Amino acid sequence: MLPALGRLHLDEITPARVAAFQRGLIDGGLSNARVNRHLAVLRRMFNLAIRWGLLGGANPAQSPGMLREQPREVFLAPPQLRALMSALADEPDRAAAGAIALLALTGARKSEVLRARWEHVDRDRGLLTVPLAKGGRRRHVVLSGAAIGVLRLQPRAPGQEFVFASPRCPPFAVRSQISPPKLAAREQISVGGPRRRRLAPARAAGRQRAEGRGASWGRAAPAGVGWMTDAAVRRHASWPPQPPA
């Protein structure tokens, strides 16, 4: 961005220059997603300049013509999953560690896990009910024996509605976010390169196992990973999930 636009004054950058900047990024071999990230940063910069009174008029990068991005699915390999679970065992924020473990074991969306209420957990049938999923419909997340074990070890104080309640917003309000844990897995797991350390692969890993393409928990989890030991896995392994009535 600096080589292309860094020597220009704000009012010298026009939509035409932004379009030329975009073409330069494309010609330079950047992916559509990376080009879009550059344009998003540029648009944000101009929005702030206008807000702070540094630039008058319209944002020249307001409608740069974002490129179509090809979504990518990333699945954790068994060694990566083992690294994740081992690191979670040492994570001081136990609720965050449990939420990430549940993401890895179920393939559920982050919002579905963070907004999970105890009343929606059916351990007898091995189901987590999502009253309002992304598509606007109710859906059921299948809970394996290991996932049920994770839920069993979550503390539940009187009056606590949410499984992974926020520790900072009494009375036990919904947790809006999982801050990237300060855990060794951020260095141990490299999904698609060192820049891609996100929670999304954990969800993909859970979906991978649900579809039968990944390693089972018994093969993937190391012995004694804190909240989910081998004994706990064996204890809950006889809980087969049942479809909803």
List descriptors.
245 residues, mainly alpha, hpI Integrase, Chain A, 3-stranded antiparallel β-sheet, 11 helices
CATH structural fold name of the largest domain: hpI Integrase, Chain A
Classified by CATH, the class of the largest domain is Mainly Alpha
Count up the domains: 2
Q: Please count the helical segments.
A: 11
Our measurement of the CA-to-CA distance between the termini, rounded to an integer number of angstroms, reads 56 Å
Helical proportion, percent range: 40-55%
Radius of gyration: 22 Å
Describe this structure in words.
With 245 residues, this protein is mainly α. It has two domains: 2-51, no CATH class; 78-236, hpI Integrase, Chain A (Orthogonal Bundle). Helix content is 41%, strand content 4%. The chain has eleven helices and three strands; from the N terminus they run ααααααβββααααα. The protein has helices spanning 2-5, 15-27, 32-51, 78-88, 94-106, 110-114, 145-152, 185-188, 200-210, 217-220, 230-236; strands at 121-122, 127-130, 139-142. Strands 1-2-3 form a three-stranded antiparallel β-sheet, with no helix packed on it. Strand 1 (121-122) and strand 2 (127-130) form a beta hairpin. Helix 5 (94-106) runs antiparallel to helix 7 (145-152). It is elongated, with a radius of gyration of 22 Å. The model is unreliable at 181-199 and 211-245 (pLDDT under 50).
